[in-house]
Amino acid sequence: MSTFTKPSMQTSSRDDAVQLNRAFKGLGCDAAVVVNILAHRNASQRDSIQQEYETLFSDDLKKQLAHELHGHLKKAVLLWMKSPIERDVTTLRQALTGPIIDVKAATEIICTRTSSQIRQIKQVYAPTFGTRLEFDIECHTSDVHKKFLLAFIAITRYDGPEIDSVLVEDDAKAINKIGVKKSGVDESTFIQIFTERSSAHLIALASVFHKMSGKELGKTIKRETSGNFKYALLTILQYADDPTKHYATVLRKATKGLGTDDSTLIRILVTRAEIDLQKIEEEFLKKYKRPLPEVVHSETSAHYRAFLLSLLDSKY
Description:
Elements: H1 13-23, H2 31-38, H3 43-57, H4 61-68, H5 71-80, H6 84-97, H7 103-111, H8 115-129, H9 133-140, H10 143-154, H11 165-180, H12 187-196, H13 199-213, H14 217-224, H15 227-241, H16 243-255, H17 262-272, H18 277-288, H19 292-299, H20 302-311
């Protein structure tokens, strides 16, 4: 379920565009107005506002926002104004080629997308940036992790609920053999299974593997693999099992300890706000005994805080 709620009063996209333009006038930007409008408009309304803004003022609203806003608020609002596919391609590009390479962010996006979504990403990525996604992965990842990601985005996986029980058992046996080998890890087995099998297959595989070996598949992955390759496998497995638990865990890691991983916090809250953020909130509270809005409030400030809390539909 989405946390997103439409404004209680009817508003017009034209009025919103006019108010935003006024917010940009004078010395500095009235960021409170930007937050109060955009954080409470759904995707269709945001698109309409952008169209009205261009019609009225012959200007691109996103470019104006990029000019007027700053810091984390700017990053969050600009991501919010994009379509889901635009969010994925821009975040992937930044993660793979930006000033700070964030391989884990790129890995998480890729490994939580369906084959059809990845196909769309690749179709948009190349004309947008003048290079193929495969090329950026090739240049900015390494070793078995690179091999895995390239295979994952190249293969079309079945996304339905049906499974082949014989194949599930064969995969469980193959992984179990890895654990009893005395030297080396058969990475090709993990690559084949985790790039070719559906989410439903992987859920069944974890169950069959546990019955067969007495071991948890996730713990076996942690023991037998390492680094970003391990992160990719665990991301796929955890997301297949329960996306809300996966995102709750990601948010916890982004907000615990010294400092906040604002890029991850923004990415998850913005991309899930109109999908399942309410369920993620519920899972976060259940697992970590703290309300997510309380955590966001403690880790952020000013208009940036107000924007994220609005996405959470929180009056905290």
